[in-house]
Amino acid sequence: AFFKLPSDSFKYLRWYDIEEHDVRGNQLQCPRVREGPSEEELFFRGEEHTLKKRKQVTDTEKWQKKLQENWENCAELNLSFQDLGDLYQVENFKRILQRLIRVEKLWLVDNSLTDLSAIRLPRCRELNVNKNHFTSFKELPKIPRIQHLSLAENNIMTLSGISDFRHTPLESLVLKRNPCEFQERYRQLVFSSLPNLKMLDGIPKLPEDCSPPDIRFFFRMCTIL
């Protein structure tokens, strides 16, 4: 037989919608930030028992919830697997990202993200956006202090825009399972664009990675007299 856990009725609630606690956002590493399914969808799922009566929220209560979120003081945060199913979910998600002014380590894995170029993360040193839908480096957030960036399993076609990270302290970069990985002289091109990079796709910088791309090209040329 299937028995529901006592917490089953709260599974679609964000943590600050649960009464009688004072947990703040910066005290959580993996908070639920997306909205739950609509009332209609819950009805068709046969989960209408999870519905909570929605009371009118006053401006004071809205302000208290904003303070309780406390994103401004988060240093490490995991917002992966949020299942951002519609436009509202994405807009609310970006609203939270805009408040992460002190975050240093951030995980946004598997969120179907396509463009965060309007977001600035001034203190972020480690960013993991694996398994999203980015197609270009230009679609990433502004991360001037980035040291470790993971972009595995996106859809980045070319290395265009990668030189924007030349003036950052970027030390390691992961581009595994992106189309650009199959570009000719891939490693040489990345390291020539990012002279301070120490590791690419989990492999340290090798002597052959430092050879200028044009020299390798020269030896493949054929002169016809």
TrEMBL record:
Domain of life: Eukaryota
Entry keywords, A to Z: Leucine-rich repeat, Repeat
SUPFAM superfamilies given in the database record: L domain-like
The UniProt record lists the keyword Repeat: yes
InterPro entries assigned: LRR_dom_sf
Protein name: TILB protein
Organism: Pampusana beccarii
